[in-house]
Amino acid sequence: MKNPNPLVSIITVVYNGSKYLQQTINSVTNQTYRNIEYIIIDGCSTDNTLEIIKKNESQISNWISEPDNGLYDAMNKGINLAKGELIGIINSDDWYELNAVKYVVDAYKENKDKLIFHGDRYNITINGDRELYKYKPSKFRFLYFSMTYNHPSMFFHKKIYEEHKYNVNFRVFSDYEFVLRLFLLKPESFHYIPNPYVNYRLGGISSNQSFISNIKEGFRARLNAGLNLFQGVTYITFRSVFHFLKPVISRAKLSKKQLN
Protein backbone atom coordinates (compact mmCIF):
# COMPACT_ATOMS: atom_id res chain seq x y z
CA MET A 1 0.00 0.00 0.00
CA LYS A 2 1.38 3.39 -1.00
CA ASN A 3 2.08 5.99 1.66
CA PRO A 4 -1.06 8.22 1.91
CA ASN A 5 1.13 11.27 2.48
CA PRO A 6 4.42 10.57 0.65
CA LEU A 7 7.37 12.92 0.88
CA VAL A 8 7.90 14.71 -2.44
CA SER A 9 11.32 16.12 -3.28
CA ILE A 10 11.47 19.10 -5.62
CA ILE A 11 14.79 20.23 -7.07
CA THR A 12 15.59 23.62 -8.56
CA VAL A 13 18.82 24.01 -10.53
CA VAL A 14 20.01 27.58 -10.96
CA TYR A 15 22.93 29.58 -12.31
CA ASN A 16 22.63 33.37 -12.39
CA GLY A 17 18.86 32.98 -12.32
CA SER A 18 17.95 35.78 -9.94
CA LYS A 19 15.45 37.32 -12.37
CA TYR A 20 12.82 34.62 -11.88
CA LEU A 21 14.12 32.52 -8.97
CA GLN A 22 11.83 34.04 -6.34
CA GLN A 23 8.78 33.18 -8.45
CA THR A 24 10.01 29.59 -8.74
CA ILE A 25 10.60 29.34 -5.00
CA ASN A 26 7.17 30.79 -4.22
CA SER A 27 5.50 28.27 -6.52
CA VAL A 28 7.07 25.43 -4.54
CA THR A 29 6.65 26.77 -1.01
CA ASN A 30 3.02 27.76 -1.63
CA GLN A 31 1.91 24.34 -2.88
CA THR A 32 -1.40 23.10 -1.49
CA TYR A 33 0.30 19.75 -0.83
CA ARG A 34 2.60 20.33 2.14
CA ASN A 35 4.86 17.29 2.59
CA ILE A 36 7.60 18.65 0.35
CA GLU A 37 11.37 18.62 0.59
CA TYR A 38 12.81 21.52 -1.43
CA ILE A 39 16.40 21.38 -2.70
CA ILE A 40 18.23 24.11 -4.62
CA ILE A 41 21.46 23.45 -6.51
CA ASP A 42 23.35 26.60 -7.47
CA GLY A 43 26.35 26.55 -9.79
CA CYS A 44 28.27 29.38 -8.07
CA SER A 45 26.14 32.21 -9.40
CA THR A 46 27.71 35.65 -9.72
CA ASP A 47 24.47 37.66 -9.57
CA ASN A 48 22.29 37.94 -6.44
CA THR A 49 20.97 34.37 -6.66
CA LEU A 50 22.61 33.46 -3.36
CA GLU A 51 20.97 36.41 -1.63
CA ILE A 52 17.56 35.15 -2.77
CA ILE A 53 18.34 31.61 -1.61
CA LYS A 54 19.49 32.83 1.81
CA LYS A 55 16.44 35.06 2.17
CA ASN A 56 14.24 31.97 1.70
CA GLU A 57 16.48 29.60 3.64
CA SER A 58 13.84 28.79 6.27
CA GLN A 59 11.65 27.26 3.54
CA ILE A 60 14.43 25.38 1.76
CA SER A 61 15.31 21.90 3.02
CA ASN A 62 18.79 21.80 1.53
CA TRP A 63 20.89 23.90 -0.81
CA ILE A 64 24.42 23.93 -2.13
CA SER A 65 26.43 26.38 -4.20
CA GLU A 66 29.45 24.94 -5.98
CA PRO A 67 30.85 24.54 -9.50
CA ASP A 68 29.25 21.86 -11.63
CA ASN A 69 29.56 20.30 -15.04
CA GLY A 70 26.42 21.90 -16.46
CA LEU A 71 22.67 21.63 -16.01
CA TYR A 72 22.40 17.86 -15.92
CA ASP A 73 25.28 17.41 -13.51
CA ALA A 74 23.47 19.82 -11.18
CA MET A 75 20.25 17.83 -11.56
CA ASN A 76 22.08 14.64 -10.61
CA LYS A 77 23.49 16.35 -7.53
CA GLY A 78 20.00 17.29 -6.41
CA ILE A 79 18.70 13.78 -7.07
CA ASN A 80 21.50 12.33 -4.93
CA LEU A 81 20.40 14.55 -2.03
CA ALA A 82 16.68 13.85 -2.42
CA LYS A 83 14.91 11.71 0.16
CA GLY A 84 11.41 11.85 -1.32
CA GLU A 85 9.33 8.98 -2.64
CA LEU A 86 8.59 11.12 -5.70
CA ILE A 87 11.08 13.56 -7.23
CA GLY A 88 10.35 16.52 -9.51
CA ILE A 89 12.68 19.09 -11.09
CA ILE A 90 11.65 22.70 -11.75
CA ASN A 91 14.26 25.05 -13.20
CA SER A 92 14.79 28.58 -11.99
CA ASP A 93 12.87 30.31 -14.78
CA ASP A 94 9.80 28.04 -14.60
CA TRP A 95 7.11 27.67 -11.97
CA TYR A 96 4.34 25.35 -10.79
CA GLU A 97 0.64 25.95 -10.51
CA LEU A 98 -0.41 25.81 -6.84
CA ASN A 99 -2.05 22.36 -7.09
CA ALA A 100 0.76 20.77 -9.12
CA VAL A 101 2.10 18.43 -6.46
CA LYS A 102 -1.41 17.53 -5.30
CA TYR A 103 -2.30 16.43 -8.84
CA VAL A 104 0.78 14.23 -8.96
CA VAL A 105 0.36 12.70 -5.50
CA ASP A 106 -3.33 11.97 -6.14
CA ALA A 107 -2.41 10.21 -9.39
CA TYR A 108 0.37 8.33 -7.64
CA LYS A 109 -1.96 7.03 -4.93
CA GLU A 110 -4.61 6.02 -7.47
CA ASN A 111 -2.22 4.19 -9.82
CA LYS A 112 -0.24 1.67 -7.82
CA ASP A 113 1.68 0.27 -10.75
CA LYS A 114 2.93 3.62 -12.13
CA LEU A 115 6.32 5.19 -11.42
CA ILE A 116 6.50 8.11 -13.87
CA PHE A 117 3.93 10.93 -13.86
CA HIS A 118 3.59 13.75 -16.38
CA GLY A 119 1.05 16.34 -17.47
CA ASP A 120 0.47 19.38 -19.63
CA ARG A 121 2.15 22.77 -19.36
CA TYR A 122 1.73 26.43 -20.19
CA ASN A 123 4.37 27.88 -22.51
CA ILE A 124 5.36 31.41 -21.55
CA THR A 125 6.41 33.42 -24.60
CA ILE A 126 9.01 36.18 -24.67
CA ASN A 127 6.10 38.66 -24.61
CA GLY A 128 4.71 37.04 -21.47
CA ASP A 129 1.73 35.40 -23.18
CA ARG A 130 0.64 32.02 -21.80
CA GLU A 131 -0.21 29.26 -24.26
CA LEU A 132 -1.45 25.78 -23.39
CA TYR A 133 0.89 23.03 -24.57
CA LYS A 134 -0.65 19.59 -24.23
CA TYR A 135 1.14 16.27 -24.15
CA LYS A 136 1.04 14.64 -27.59
CA PRO A 137 0.66 10.86 -27.25
CA SER A 138 2.33 9.97 -30.54
CA LYS A 139 5.10 7.38 -30.40
CA PHE A 140 6.20 8.29 -33.95
CA ARG A 141 6.51 11.96 -33.05
CA PHE A 142 8.42 11.14 -29.86
CA LEU A 143 10.91 8.86 -31.60
CA TYR A 144 11.53 10.87 -34.74
CA PHE A 145 10.70 14.51 -34.13
CA SER A 146 10.94 15.88 -30.61
CA MET A 147 10.29 15.51 -26.91
CA THR A 148 6.53 15.03 -26.55
CA TYR A 149 6.64 14.66 -22.78
CA ASN A 150 6.70 17.87 -20.77
CA HIS A 151 9.83 17.30 -18.70
CA PRO A 152 9.13 20.14 -16.20
CA SER A 153 5.84 18.39 -15.37
CA MET A 154 7.48 15.01 -14.76
CA PHE A 155 7.79 13.38 -11.35
CA PHE A 156 9.69 10.11 -11.01
CA HIS A 157 9.58 7.54 -8.26
CA LYS A 158 12.89 7.36 -6.40
CA LYS A 159 13.35 3.80 -7.80
CA ILE A 160 13.77 5.29 -11.28
CA TYR A 161 16.56 7.61 -10.19
CA GLU A 162 18.26 4.82 -8.25
CA GLU A 163 18.73 3.01 -11.57
CA HIS A 164 19.15 5.94 -14.00
CA LYS A 165 20.70 9.41 -13.97
CA TYR A 166 21.00 12.23 -16.52
CA ASN A 167 23.85 11.99 -19.03
CA VAL A 168 26.21 14.93 -18.43
CA ASN A 169 27.76 14.53 -21.89
CA PHE A 170 24.75 16.15 -23.58
CA ARG A 171 24.18 19.88 -23.63
CA VAL A 172 20.42 19.92 -24.25
CA PHE A 173 19.25 16.36 -25.01
CA SER A 174 19.93 14.58 -21.74
CA ASP A 175 16.33 14.83 -20.52
CA TYR A 176 15.14 13.49 -23.88
CA GLU A 177 17.61 10.58 -23.75
CA PHE A 178 16.59 9.87 -20.14
CA VAL A 179 12.85 9.78 -20.89
CA LEU A 180 13.29 7.85 -24.15
CA ARG A 181 15.40 5.20 -22.40
CA LEU A 182 12.66 4.76 -19.78
CA PHE A 183 9.97 4.72 -22.48
CA LEU A 184 11.77 1.89 -24.27
CA LEU A 185 12.42 -0.04 -21.05
CA LYS A 186 9.30 0.66 -18.96
CA PRO A 187 6.45 2.04 -21.14
CA GLU A 188 3.87 0.67 -18.70
CA SER A 189 5.31 2.85 -15.89
CA PHE A 190 4.14 6.16 -17.42
CA HIS A 191 0.95 7.87 -16.31
CA TYR A 192 -0.51 11.00 -17.95
CA ILE A 193 -2.29 13.60 -15.81
CA PRO A 194 -4.59 15.66 -18.11
CA ASN A 195 -3.96 18.98 -16.37
CA PRO A 196 -1.57 21.87 -17.10
CA TYR A 197 0.27 22.38 -13.81
CA VAL A 198 3.63 23.84 -14.80
CA ASN A 199 4.67 27.05 -16.55
CA TYR A 200 7.63 26.86 -18.93
CA ARG A 201 9.47 29.90 -20.25
CA LEU A 202 10.45 29.56 -23.89
CA GLY A 203 13.92 30.56 -25.05
CA GLY A 204 16.13 28.20 -23.04
CA ILE A 205 19.49 26.76 -24.04
CA SER A 206 17.97 24.36 -26.58
CA SER A 207 16.60 27.26 -28.61
CA ASN A 208 20.08 28.83 -28.75
CA GLN A 209 21.72 25.76 -30.25
CA SER A 210 22.06 25.54 -34.04
CA PHE A 211 19.94 23.16 -36.10
CA ILE A 212 23.00 21.09 -37.04
CA SER A 213 24.10 20.81 -33.41
CA ASN A 214 20.56 19.80 -32.40
CA ILE A 215 20.42 17.13 -35.10
CA LYS A 216 23.80 15.67 -34.11
CA GLU A 217 23.01 15.62 -30.41
CA GLY A 218 19.50 14.30 -31.03
CA PHE A 219 20.93 11.46 -33.12
CA ARG A 220 23.43 10.48 -30.42
CA ALA A 221 20.78 10.68 -27.71
CA ARG A 222 18.50 8.32 -29.60
CA LEU A 223 21.21 5.75 -30.13
CA ASN A 224 22.34 6.00 -26.51
CA ALA A 225 18.76 5.47 -25.33
CA GLY A 226 18.37 2.29 -27.35
CA LEU A 227 17.20 3.10 -30.88
CA ASN A 228 19.05 1.41 -33.73
CA LEU A 229 21.04 3.08 -36.50
CA PHE A 230 18.16 2.88 -39.00
CA GLN A 231 15.85 4.62 -36.52
CA GLY A 232 18.51 7.26 -35.93
CA VAL A 233 18.85 7.96 -39.65
CA THR A 234 15.04 8.07 -39.93
CA TYR A 235 15.07 10.79 -37.25
CA ILE A 236 17.64 12.84 -39.18
CA THR A 237 15.63 12.49 -42.40
CA PHE A 238 12.26 13.53 -40.94
CA ARG A 239 13.68 16.36 -38.84
CA SER A 240 15.62 17.75 -41.81
CA VAL A 241 12.63 17.63 -44.14
CA PHE A 242 10.43 19.27 -41.51
CA HIS A 243 13.07 21.95 -40.83
CA PHE A 244 13.20 23.02 -44.47
CA LEU A 245 9.43 22.77 -45.00
CA LYS A 246 8.51 24.64 -41.82
CA PRO A 247 8.84 28.16 -43.34
CA VAL A 248 6.68 27.08 -46.30
CA ILE A 249 4.02 25.63 -43.97
CA SER A 250 4.08 28.78 -41.82
CA ARG A 251 3.61 31.03 -44.85
CA ALA A 252 0.74 28.87 -46.10
CA LYS A 253 -0.99 29.06 -42.71
CA LEU A 254 -0.53 32.84 -42.61
CA SER A 255 -1.95 33.23 -46.13
CA LYS A 256 -4.97 31.10 -45.24
CA LYS A 257 -5.56 33.14 -42.10
CA GLN A 258 -5.39 36.39 -44.07
CA LEU A 259 -7.87 35.07 -46.65
CA ASN A 260 -10.32 34.15 -43.91
Defining traits:
260 residues; alpha/beta; Spore Coat Polysaccharide Biosynthesis Protein SpsA, Chain A; 9-stranded mixed beta sheet; 9 strands; 42% helix
Please, what is the average pLDDT? 92
Instruction: Return the structural class.
Output: alpha/beta
Nearest-angstrom radius of gyration?
Answer: 19 Å
Q: Count the beta strands.
A: 9
Provide the low-confidence segments as ranges: none
Order of helices and strands: EHEHEHEEHEEHEHHEHH
The tally of structural domains comes to: 1
Strand content: 15-25%
> How many strands, which pairing sense, and closed or not: the largest β-sheet?
9 strands, mixed
Number of helical segments with 4 or more residues: 9
At the fold tier of CATH, the topology name is Spore Coat Polysaccharide Biosynthesis Protein SpsA, Chain A
Question: Fraction of residues in helices?
Answer: 40-55%
Top-tier CATH class: Alpha Beta
Q: Please, what is the CATH homologous superfamily?
A: Spore Coat Polysaccharide Biosynthesis Protein SpsA, Chain A
Query: Termini separation (Å)?
Result: 57 Å
Shape: globular
- The CATH architecture assignment turns out to be Alpha-Beta Complex
Task: Give a verbal description of the structure.
- The protein has a single domain (8-210), classed as Spore Coat Polysaccharide Biosynthesis Protein SpsA, Chain A (Alpha-Beta Complex).
- 42% of the residues lie in helices and 20% in strands.
- It has helices at residues 21-29, 49-55, 71-81, 100-110, 139-144, 158-163, 174-185, 211-225, 229-259, and strands spanning 8-14, 36-42, 62-65, 86-89, 95-96, 116-124, 130-133, 155-157, 190-201.
- Strands 1, 2, 3, 4, 5, 6, 7, 8 and 9 form a 9-stranded mixed β-sheet that branches.
- Strand 6 and strand 7 form a beta hairpin.
- Helix 7 (174-185) runs parallel beside helix 8 (211-225) and helix 8 (211-225) packs across helix 9.
